[in-house]
Amino acid sequence: MDETTSPGRFGAPGIGRRAPGFGRRTPGFGPSDRGWFIGGGIALIWTFPTLLSLWELPDLWASIAGTVVEVLFAAVFLVSVPVIRRTRQRFARLLPAGILFGLSLLLLPLIGDGVRWTWTFVGVAIAVSRTGRSVVFPLVGALSLGAFVVGAPEDSFLSALNAAVILSVSFMMFSFVENIVTLEKLRTAQDQVAELAAERERSRVARDVHDILGHSLTVITVKAELAGRLMDAGSPAARNEVAQIEQLSRGALADVRATVHGYRGVSISGELAAARAALESAGVAAELPGSTDQVPSDRRELAGWVVREAVTNVVRHAEASVCRVSLDARSVEVADDGRGPSGASSGSGLTGLRERVETAGGRMSVGRSDLGGFRVRVTW
Fold first, then answer.
1. Which of 109, 190, 264, 302 sits CB 3.0–4.6 Å from 258 for a disulfide?
2. DSSP 197-220
3. Whole-number CA gyration radius for the chain
4. Distance separating alpha carbons of residues 74 and 113, to the nearest angstrom
C-alpha cells in the first residue's frame, strides 16, 4: 500500500472504523483520530502505578518533576498514531517511540527499574509505526529483553511477566495494523474492480448503440431515399417504403432500450434477414447462405454482429453491386466488389467490432476481397 492510503483508525487496545488519511499530510487532528484518542486515553490508565510510585517519593520536587515527565509521556503517546499517520518517511515514524523511550529513561533515577512498566507503551508505538516486520520485531524483542534484564534478580517472575506483556500487546497491535492495511488494500482493489466494470459496461453500451444505430440509421437513410424517388415517380410503393421506415425506427428504439438494460441478443439468422433487406434497398445484390446450421451455437451471436457491422459498411461506404456472406463452422466472411479497403476501413465501427471479436476469443482480419472490393473475415 502506498503512503497516501488509509489503513484505518486505531483504538487501544482495540481498533475502530476505517479512517481516511493515514500517511497523508493533513493539518491538525480530525475525526479520523478520535478512535485512537479514546482507546489510547483508556490505555493510559496503566500509567497510574508509575504515578503512584512517583508521588510516594520523599522529595517533593522529584515527585513534581517525575509527574511532569509522565504527563509528557502520556501526551506523546496520545499523539503518536496521528503523527505516524501524517509521516511519509518510513523510519521517521519511529520518532514517537524514540521520544517515549527517552522520557522513560528520565524516570530511571527516580523509580529505578519501575520504568520498565512504561515500555509497553513504547512497544505499542513501535508496533503501529508501519515500518515492517524486519524493523518492528527486532525492536520489540530488544525492548522486551531489556525489560527482563532491568528487573531485579529477585523479581524474575515480574520481569518475565513484564516482558511477556510488552511482547503480547505490541504484537497484537502490530497484527491489528496489518489487518487494517490488508482490508484497506481489499477496499482499494474492490473500488478498482468496480471502476473497471463500470468502464467496461460503458464501452459495451457505447459499442452496442453504435452498432445498432449505425445499421438501423443506414437502412432508414437508404429506404428514405428510395421512398423519395418513388414519390417523385408517383409510385404507390412509396407508402410501403415509408411504413418500413417507421417500423425500422421503432425497432431501433426498442434495440437501444434493450441494449442500455443489457438484455439485447443478436442472432446470425436474424441479421442475415436484415442484411438481405438492407442490401436490396440499397440496390446491392445479396449472396447469402441458405442455412446457419454450420455455425456453432456459442458463436452465432458473434457471427450476427460481424454480419451486421460489415453489411452496414457495404451499404454506407462500399458503392458495391454485390455483397457475399460466407459461413462455416470456424469463420464468417463478408465480401463485396466495391471501392476496397481505402473506402471502408475507417471509422469506429470496425474498431468496435474488432474489440468484440477479441473479447470473444476470435480473430478478425480485413483486406481486399476476391470480388475486388472489401473483405471482413472473423475466425474462432
1. 264
2. HHHHHHHHHHHHHHHHHHHHHHHH
3. 38
4. 19
